[in-house]
Amino acid sequence: MFRVSCLAAAGLVLVVLVAGCSGPETDLPDLAPVSGTVTMGGKPLSKVAVQFESATGHGASGVTDETGRYELFFAGNVKGAPLGPSTVRITTVLDFPTPPDYKDPVPAKYNESSELKVTVQAGENKHDFDLSP
User: Which of 5, 36, 37, 127 could bond to 68 as cystine, CB 3.0-4.6 Å?
Assistant: First the structure.
């Protein structure tokens, strides 16, 4: 019972946060479409999250399909990422709960300690990432 109550409370908090963070589309930063593919050792990575975090703290994210292709969304269904430099983080999408001994197959240098940097420019942007294990 306590677990269900905690889950319900967490869900309510999430709804309030999302509702509070979504303003009119005129409040959006300048965005540009971003897409590309993610591979590791030349093979497509499916079901990995691709996140761009701009220097101003704004983020955009997407998830790769079975061919490793992704497209970024800023908020809800708004396509694109903020213009300017971004740190890119790539992580495996997981079902919860994760096992205590879980280790992400994507190395930390691409996610929590990401070394990936890109610049999003006006117009179409294509950023492909071939990760090494």
Answer: 37
Q: Output phi, psi for 108, to 5 deg.
A: -55, -25
Full-model pTM: 0.76
10 Å CB burial of residue 117 (0-12, 13-18, 19+) is exposed
Distance linking the first and last C-alpha atoms of the chain: 43
Spatial distance between the Cα atoms of 108 and 117, rounded to a whole number of angstroms:
14
Quick count: other Cβ atoms within 10 Å of Cβ 46? 15
Q: What is the H or E stretch that residue 19 is in?
A: helix 2-21
Please check whether residue 46 is in contact with residue 26, taking contact to mean a CB–CB distance below 8 angstroms: no
Residue-wise pLDDT for 41-91, tens only, equals 999 999 999 999 998 899 999 999 999 999 999 988 899 999 999 999 999
CATH superfamily to which 29-131 belongs: Immunoglobulins (2.60.40.10)
How many Å is the maximal CA-CA distance in the chain? 51
